[in-house]
Amino acid sequence: MKTIVPNYYKNFRCIAQECKHNCCIGWEIDIDEDTLSLYDNVKNSFKKQLDEGINRNEEFACFKLDGKGRCAFLNENNLCKIILNLDENSLCQICNDHPRFRNYYSDRTEMGLGLCCEEAGKIILSQNEKFSLEVIEDDRMDIQCTEDEKDFFHIRECIFDAINEGKSILSFCNNDFPKKSVSQWADIYLSLERLEEHWPILLNDLKSIDIDEINIPEKYDFCFKNLLTYFTYRHLNEFSDESDLMFIHLSCETIKNLCKMHIKKYGELTLDDIIEYSRMYSSEIEYSDENIEKLIEAL
């Protein structure tokens, strides 16, 4: 079994208290059974804080959030009390993995970095090297991928090549992309589950501001190629169909439209702006299965 990652994966390091959008704020984090058992067996003076900071019922346990949505174990300096009082090995699986994601195949696990993390977004979108995959672990067991998986990996490489050449991934679809205006898509996004208060404000602005004549500077073309490649790597698998390709296209176009609106409102666009709109989109959409399902229904 192999573990395979993008060529930029090894560059990621959590920036902890330097992060402007801390992943310990606003997210309800479930605690896996093994970690909960570890917490139950803590014997030092931190045990009382552990017990007080965890919500439990018969089905699951999660970290409590305060009135501002902050994890009970996030201190005033935005550092984790669990790491400070125990160690990094005491984090639950979700906290330990974030912002990493995994896709599983017969002969491999493919890992990547999620765009909802601002540091991961900076690494992903600022890449100048051509996207490639690297093997970081290999147990040398003789496990083969299925024929369907082989076909998928080949098609995916063709899509990566097309993106690198500046072609639309819709060229791999037989059906037409739905004819909806920017305002109509904004209405669909407004109907979805929301995380950040600023998100619906942006969507309402997108409905009211005319961006038809706005163009994103060509110097940022590489960012949107990286964005398309990221969504393709994360969301396509051997069971995907045209709706998944259309979801990837829609996601990138929506982020582009937010960037165009930024230019219309402020007269300029920076790489940091693109990273922030991408981070916000990822947080609102990629981490809600329900939101993705509703968008695919609309497609």
Rg, nearest Å? 21 Å
SS-derived structural category = alpha+beta
The 3D shape can be described as globular
Spatial order of the strands forming the largest sheet: 4-5-1-6
Strand content: 5-15%
Helical residue percent band = 40-55%
The quaternary structure here is: single chain
| Amino- and carboxy-terminal Cα gap | 36 Å
Mean pLDDT: 94
Number of strands: 6
Q: Give the SSE order as H and E letters.
A: EHHEEHHEEHEHHHHHHH
Uncertain parts: none
Largest sheet: 4 strands, mixed
Number of alpha- plus pi-helical segments? 12
Structure overview:
This protein has twelve helices and six strands. The protein has helices at residues 33-40, 47-52, 81-85, 93-97, 118-125, 147-164, 182-190, 198-208, 221-235, 242-266, 271-286, 289-298, and strands at 2-6, 54-56, 61-63, 100-104, 108-113, 133-138. It has a four-stranded mixed sheet with strand order 4-5-1-6. Strands 2-3 form a two-stranded antiparallel ribbon. Strand 4 and strand 5 form a beta hairpin. The relative contact order is 0.13. The mean pLDDT is 94.
Key features?
two-stranded antiparallel sheet; 45% helix
